[in-house]
Amino acid sequence: MLEEAELCFPEFLNSSCKKLTIPHFEVVLMYIVLSSISVLTAFLNLLLIVSISHFRQLHTPTNLLLLSLAISDFSVGLLLFFQTALIDGCWFLGDIMCTVYQYLAYVITSSSIGTMVLISLDRYVAICYPLHYSTKITRGRVKVCIFLCWMCSWVFQSLILIENLKQPGKYNSCIGECAFVISYIAGYADLAFSFIVPISIIVVLYLRVFVVAVSQSRAMRSHIAAVSLQHSVTAKRSQVKAAKTLGLVVLVFLLCMCPYYCVALSEESNSMSAYLLILYYVNSCLNPLIYALFYPWFRKSIKIIVTLKILKSGSSDLSYTAS
Fold first, then answer.
1. pLDDT tens digit string along 187-234?
2. Pairwise CA distance, residues 120 & 114, whole Å
3. What residues does each domain of the chain span?
């Protein structure tokens, strides 16, 4: 017989799940760490969302893509609160909330990867075809692409998880479990379209961007003394800097995401997958920190928001120096 303290729901002695045997100190530490990451992730990405949405000069095609990514990262921060509920292996929020949590996690992950592909494509056109960038990459087209990215994520994940959505809690083996099961075909389809294909596209595009950016940097250094080329050089330098910054965002994203998918592909233990999933969640906290480090306009907008100057009339028309 199991002791009642070992069960998630002692009142359901014969059907309750068993709690994980984790030292109390580790449980408290994990609660503190996950809660802190969750609050920090939500707060930093909310600052980015407000910045790009409020200040008109920041309504560029590239920043719209960053806005889409920030919305995904902000949602991840909120989902981390649900992740803390599973620290001891017990889910107390019911089958419907379990389904909502898991479904949103799949959709947000898929949309984040799709947005990373769009960011890579944006930098590819900006660096490799700079003369055509303003005509090919417009705010209207970017908005349509972002909409399609999110819609495709919702539809695709709905098809992948249809059995779980039809009957929440269908695959739970005991009360207090939050299980999500997909078929092998659906799993491989998700792996292909949510990982292998987009990652391949991102790597190919950024390899091309890297080669062209290096050649442009050399050309700029050799012509920097020519006064007539100063404007062109400054524009190219700005594009190269943006490519490097967003390249860092993509690289960090890949480093945080690939281990989880690799372990999932190799069918390792669930405990390792859980820790690597948290690593992926941490990535959502790192993105706004990267923007704050490399983008002066983000630092300036944070100062305006924190000091409440954003509430003043005409604050949306404040100008930012190019960066």
1. 888 888 888 898 889 888 888 888 887 776 666 566 554 544 454 545
2. 10
3. 17-221+268-309
Per-residue pLDDT tens for 44-69?
Answer: 999 999 999 999 889 999 999 999 99
Bridge partners of residue 16, in order along the sequence: 175
Number of C-beta neighbours around residue 145 at 10 A: 21
Classify burial at 314, counting beta carbons within 10 Å of its beta carbon; exposed 0-12, middle 13-18, buried 19 or more: exposed
Report how far apart, in Å, the C-alpha atoms of 75 and of each of 64, 101, 228 are.
Answer: 17, 11, 47
Amino acid making up residue 181: V
For the chain, the first-to-last Cα distance in angstroms comes to: 66
In angstroms, rounded to a whole number, what is the distance separating the alpha carbons of residues 299 and 279? 26
Question: What are 310's two structure tokens?
Answer: 């954003």
Tokens of 70: 């920030």
Contact call for residues 220 and 233 (beta carbons, < 8 A)? yes
CA 298, 304, 307 angle in degrees (round to 5)? 135
Contacts of 77 (CB under 8 A, 6+ apart): 37, 38, 39, 40, 41, 42, 43, 45, 284, 285
Q: Residue 178 corresponds to which tokens in the numbers above? A: 């939050």
Give the C-alpha separation, 158 to 321, whole Å.
43
The model's pTM is 0.85
Architecture of the CATH domain 17-221+268-309: Up-down Bundle (1.20)
